[in-house]
Amino acid sequence: MRAADLGARTNASRPAAGKVGSDDSKEFLFGVVAMLLAALAMSISPSLVRLADVGPFASAFWRVFLALPILWIWMRYAEIADVKAPRASFTIPTILAAMAFTGDLLFWHLAIMQTTIANATFFATMAPLWVVIFGWLLLRQRVDRATLVGLLVCLAGGAALVAQSLAFNPSRAVGDALAIITGAFFGLYFLAVGAARPKTNAARVTLELSIITAAILFFVAFFFEPRILPQSISGWCVLLALGLVSHAGGQGLLSVALGRLPTVFSSLVIFLESIAAALFAWFLFSENVTLIQALGGMVIVGGIWIARPRTP
């Protein structure tokens, strides 16, 4: 499938970036709520990765693998409830989403261990910037002015969120670079899932990309980690929370939202993950939240409001 065709089908499957008709208002609201819950569910993942008693690659594997039974049940229920819903299996966009998500998790879990949680999450959630860049380069997608302004405001708020730790620190430089790479993979993931959703339902997309991701991550963890199995009950509980909350909940709700919202706007809402992650890090690891960081969080919310799709 050519990139131009993929972009055309992606754009045709959802409301235009600047307008949402009255008939779509309920779907849009449902998508926004799903995206907000997805951001909240994924925001706890950096803290859980820090708490896990296995290495970053092993925790990435368990994160996806432990979610598979829940995702399978969700898929079966969704397809029984709506027998007319499209259900194409392992489409090219789904496979591409799995590749992007694998890269996202590999670099993301490494970044969490080598820089602050606020830094890692901010750079990783710069996905909107990459969505705009890749969407234009690969799919020739255009973004309206309000969305671009909202993106710039969100980036400014995110910079304020990590202001005190953005000063160059050689000990964090590698982690920050890994988190930037994570954001690029996350942007590709948004575009791929957005393209996959018109062909099949959110549950099947999430399950199938998770199966591929888990298989790849298992081999990476097997060859590069000294051990894969956690050593305690608490270690298993952390990984179970990572799988059920951050992956089954977070990625599942993200797939739901991407079938109802413009891709660029969806990626902007995920900026809220950096706010919640900073709060979790403050509570669990005493990574203080300053007044400037709090104001940065408010600026992010303002940027999302500016970029919201308008009704006619």
UniProtKB/TrEMBL annotation:
Disordered, as annotated region:
1-22
Cite a GO CC annotation: membrane
| Ranges annotated as spanning the membrane | 28-48, 60-78, 90-111, 117-139, 146-167, 173-193, 205-224, 236-258, 265-285, 291-307
Give the record's keywords alphabetically.
Membrane, Transmembrane, Transmembrane helix
Domain EamA: from-to ranges = 30-157, 175-306
Q: Does the keyword Transmembrane apply?
A: yes
Whether Repressor counts among this entry's keywords is: no
Name of the protein: Drug/metabolite transporter (DMT)-like permease
Task: Say which species the protein is native to.
Answer: Rhizobium leucaenae
Upper lineage ranks?
A: Bacteria, Pseudomonadati, Pseudomonadota, Alphaproteobacteria, Hyphomicrobiales
